[in-house]
Amino acid sequence: MNSVFLAGLYRELLLAIRDTADVVTPLLFFVLVGMLFVLGLEPMPELLQAVGPGVIWVAALLSALLGAERLFRADYQSGALELAVLSPEPLSLHVMAKLCGHWLVSALPLLLLSPLLALMMNLPTQALSVLALTLLLGTPVFTILAALGAALTVGLRGGGSLLALVVLPLTIPVLIFGSRSVVQAVNGEEVTGLWALGMLAVLALSLGPPAVAAAVRISLE
Amino acid sequence: MGKESWRWFHRFGSPPHVYGLADRMVPWFAILGLACLLTATVWGLAFAPPDYEQGDGFRMIYVHVPAAWLSLFVYVLLALASAIGLIWRMKVAHAVAIAAAPLGAAFTFLSLATGSIWGQPMWGTWWTWDPRLTSQLILLFLYIGFIVLNRAFQDQRSGDRASALLGVVGVVNVPIIHFSVDWWHSLHQPATIAKFGAPSIDTAMLIPLLVMALGYKLFFAWLLLRQLQAELLQRERRAAWTKALVTGPGGTVK
User: Model confidence over A18-39: pLDDT tens digits?
Assistant: First the structure.
């Protein structure tokens, strides 16, 4: 059981190292979206500080969506996904390994990049730890929901915009709790949304892998 | 308790059986639904007393609230049918979910539109990020995602199962969305806007509202059955029973 998970994780990381473009593109996209907002708005420090948490969270969400579109595509085309379905080990374990690997190469660097965006948005330093913590709790949920959408649309042509339409409404609670918690931290108020984010993360981590596995099965039927 | 007791359930898996059943039920729902709608409209618009604050403006409640109730109800129904379709691989259940989706979306849109029209004189603006309006808007997007995903597949069965899974995930998400939107709203705007449809509503206003809600439900059931029949005919267009419907028993195609 365990070796399946580790082998899957190793494969995912190896693929990411061999093809860095796939990993770097969503990260650059994350920074670019942040920059575009600044350029689209007036660069007034108070204004940037007010909209900053929301912009960073939306940018993280869109970046997760962009990265997830290709999550299953190569495995679907090469037949590796079919082998995972046919293998005697539970499919959710394969899926879990894939999602963990994907999170490590897509969301973790994004987390490390988030202080950069916080600087661009003129967020005070006291909010940085809350921003990192909320992203740590929220990005796994984004990864799982985006993977669900990606698994459902993997067999369709032009699944990108469909993926967004299907996934984005489901991500709203995470966006609200994450972004608002950062806003509270920026304003120096008590942060009250963390427990809800943690709850959503636990819910997604426990129900997500079987749901994504079911979605993969449906797409391969 | 034997196989016998489950026969009624298994028969719902048979499209011709459900089609025939719908045919027999449609007149009842149609007549009762229209009667309720008509009664409640006349009662609510002409006989219910005007509100002491909102005057006649409150009468929008008779269109708005039943639609809002129904929009959530239909989504739960859609998710239930989806789950039944996924678990027992029942084609008819998927057809019910697909038939219900555009109706639910329409009721959601109706509640949004009437809420907005009511908000213009009451709140002084067409749109405000009231938690209920916001939740309804998200619900509308959930419906649209469901419909679009289902239609995106060439193969009907894959589309049915994919959208069904989305429906089930969506229904888990609906209470979370409501909760998060309420929380979001409570942070920056502590209840300044008077809640709409408060429990302190007068009985003289409430009774027509309940009749209207019942009328909406029956009206929905009528539309759902008709939509379901159309969906079944379309899906089973190559089956013998649909051909028999067109030609009559033993007849030939004209």
Answer: 888 888 888 999 999 998 988 8
Residue A152 and residue B149: Cβ atoms within 8 Å? yes
**Chain A residue nearest residue B167, CA to CA:** A166
C-alpha A81/C-alpha A78 separation (Å) is: 8
List Cβ<8 Å contacts ≥24 apart for B156-162.
B156/B235, B157/A221, B158/A155, B158/A218, B158/A219, B158/A221, B160/B85, B160/B91, B160/B94, B160/B97, B160/B98, B161/A218, B161/A221, B161/B85, B161/B86, B161/B94, B162/A152, B162/A153, B162/A215, B162/A218, B162/A219
- CA distance to partner chain A, nearest, from residue B154 (Å): 9
Task: Confirm whether B33 is domain-assigned.
Answer: yes
Average pLDDT rounded to a whole number, residues B214-237: 91
Give the ipTM.
Answer: 0.89
State pLDDT tens for residues A106-165. Answer: 999 999 999 989 988 888 888 899 999 999 999 999 999 999 999 999 888 767 788 999
pLDDT for residue B236? 85
Asked if B145 lies within 8 A of A193 by C-beta distance, the reply is: no
Which candidate, B205, B220, B163, places its Cα nearest to that of B50? Answer: B205
- Mean pLDDT of the B39-51 span: 80
Number of compact structural domains in chain B:
1
Mutation target vs B (from A65, A166, A192; most B CBs, 10 A cutoff): A166
Cβ proximity of A139 and A46 under 8 Å: no
User: In angstroms, rounded to a whole number, what is the distance separating the alpha carbons of residues A209 and A84?
Assistant: 14
Tell me the residue range of the domain where A122 lies: 2-220
Question: CB contact, 8 Å: A196 with chain B?
Answer: yes
Q: Is residue B253 part of a domain?
A: no
Q: Give the domain extent around B48.
A: 16-247
Number of domains in chain A: 1
From A152, A207, A211, residue closest to B162, measured CB to CB:
A152
B contacts of A168 (beta carbons < 8 Å): 141
Residue B4 domain flag: no
Contacts of B165 in chain A (CB under 8 A): 152, 211, 214-215, 218
